[in-house]
Every structure is written in C-alpha cells, then in structure tokens.
Specification:
By secondary structure, the protein is α/β, with parallel strands linked by helices. The protein is about 50% helix and about 15% strand. The chain has a single domain, classed as TIM Barrel (Alpha-Beta Barrel), CATH 3.20.20. The structure holds zinc ion.
Length: about 280
C-alpha cells in the first residue's frame, strides 16, 4: 500500500515509535526491505538517493517505477521517498515520477536560500499530495566516510523558525550522527534533540542511523525521532553474506544471498525501531 510520509509518520507518532527508512539502489534491496517489513507487519520507507545516481549505482527514472510498483502491492504501508535531493529540478522530477515524499537538502546553502528553496518544493509537492522533509544543520558528507567532527549541529530556535516558515512535514536534524561507517562510536547530543522536539510540531528525522547502538536508538525514539535513515550497515551485511559464500560462480546466486543478508539486517533494525525488542 503506497502512502506519503506525513501519514506514515502520523502513525509512528501515535505509537511513539520510529519508521525505518532504507535506501534501495537495486531490486534486491527493495525486496529485502519490503520483505522484512511484511514479515514483521510494520510500515516502512524505501528511498532513492540522488547521490546514488551521482555514484553511478542507479538512475531515479529507472528506480521510481519499480519502487512504486513494489510499494503498491505490499501488504504493509510503504512510503516511496527521494533522499537528499540537492538539486531543485531533480526533486521536481521526482515528484512528477510519483515519489510520495521528497527530501530537499539545502543544508549546504545559506539558511535564507535553504528556506526559500524549501518553500518552493513544499508548494510543488502539495500539487502531488506528496510530503517534504528538509534539513537544518549538517550531517557531513552525503556519501560514506562522514566523520562526526565535521557536523554542524541543528540550532533549536532556527529549527522552529524554519519549520514555521516552510510548512515542511518532517525535519532532519544534526545532533551527532554521521553518514557512512562509524570509525568511533557516535556521541549523540540528546539534550539538543529534546529541545528541538519540545518546540517544533513536525516529526524529527535521524540520518546516519545505521551503526548506532540499540540503547541510543531507543533513547532518540523516546525523545521524538520518528524516521530513521538507515543504509550503510544494511549494505555491509549484504556484502558480508556474499563474502562467506563458498561458490560464487553465478551472479544470480550472489544476488539472492545479498538479499538474504540485507533482509536479516533490516529486520533487526525494524524490530528495534518499532519497539518489538
Ligand atoms: Zn542522510
């Protein structure tokens, strides 16, 4: 069942849990994520990231129809989300392709430019009944290799102003997580997260969500995080499963084993986010 971000996060808010949001740059990862969500009977978000197109992994035009098809026929609510759209035209193309949610990422621009562009995306998304996530503060590099030290944490009062001015449906906040593999365990600024949650009236999104400890997931969910972006450790689990294969002659066997490894990892993540363990 295809749903937008606003509605899927409303359900998360009512249940005081978080929805796992997974990048799916190929068919195996789409099947792994939706398969895990269906097995656990939990809503889920699948995402195409602009950076994955830039890295040559997959094109939005190719992925959108498959993601939408798989979401529509799923037995659980699935939101099809565009992750870190840094280019306005790219995000608008995503809306035209049918994404039910888009993230406009203007975090590398000045706050004024970020606000102005986000307003335009919110207006465009309304015409499609799609939701909008935006970001204030910065989680560092969008691709792997992000190190927490470079992050610029989200300022609570700026966050409040930004949400009020733009009318977005969810806000990505920087409070200590980073994209990519963690070289040292992340130290999260829980007080900052609570302060932001107390004064804004939209759900908070945590990026760099894979590789965080189970206790920290539970703590951020208690403090208002409702969407957790998760990819690196899922992709790593797929790679590790393949590396343990004794016979790698045929690619179709490799693909199936990668899907199994990713699905297992995603399933554990969803259980924690949904409060099932
Ligand atoms: Zn991110």
């Amino acid at each position: 069942m295809l749903v937008n971000l606003k509605n899927i996060l409303k359900a998360a808010e009512a249940r005081k849990c978080a929805i796992g949001s997974f990048n799916t740059p190929n068919l195996m990862s789409i099947k792994a994520v939706i398969g895990a969500a269906e097995e656990l009977n939990q809503p889920v978000i699948i995402m195409h990231a602009q950076v994955h197109e830039e890295m040559g992994l997959c094109k939005m035009e190719e992925m959108a129809p498959i993601m939408l098809f798989m979401a529509e026929r799923a037995s659980v609510p699935v939101c099809v989300h565009l992750d870190h759209g840094t280019d306005m035209d790219y995000v608008k193309r995503g809306l035209e392709l049918g994404f039910t949610s888009v993230m406009y990422d203007g975090s590398e621009l000045s706050v004024d430019e970020n606000r102005a562009n986000t307003c335009m995306i919110v207006e465009a998304a309304e015409r499609f009944g799609a939701s909008v996530e935006a970001e204030v503060g910065s989680m560092g590099a969008r691709e792997s290799g992000g190190e927490g030290g470079e992050s610029i944490y989200t300022d609570p009062s700026l966050a409040k102003e930004f949400v009020g001015d733009t009318g977005i449906d969810a806000l990505a906040c920087a409070f200590g997580t980073a994209h990519g593999l963690y070289l040292t365990a992340p130290k999260l600024d829980f007080d900052r997260l609570s302060k932001i949650n107390d004064i804004i009236d939209v759900p908070i999104v945590m990026h760099g969500g894979s590789g965080v400890s189970e206790e920290d997931y539970k703590e951020v969910i208690r403090r208002g995080v409702r969407k957790i972006n998760y990819y690196t450790y899922m992709a790593k689990a797929g790679g590790e499963a393949v590396s343990k294969m004794s016979d790698m002659t045929f690619f179709h066997d490799i693909a199936v084993e990668a899907e199994r490894g990713m699905r297992e990892n995603v399933s554990e993540a969803i259980k924690v986010f949904a409060g099932l363990k």
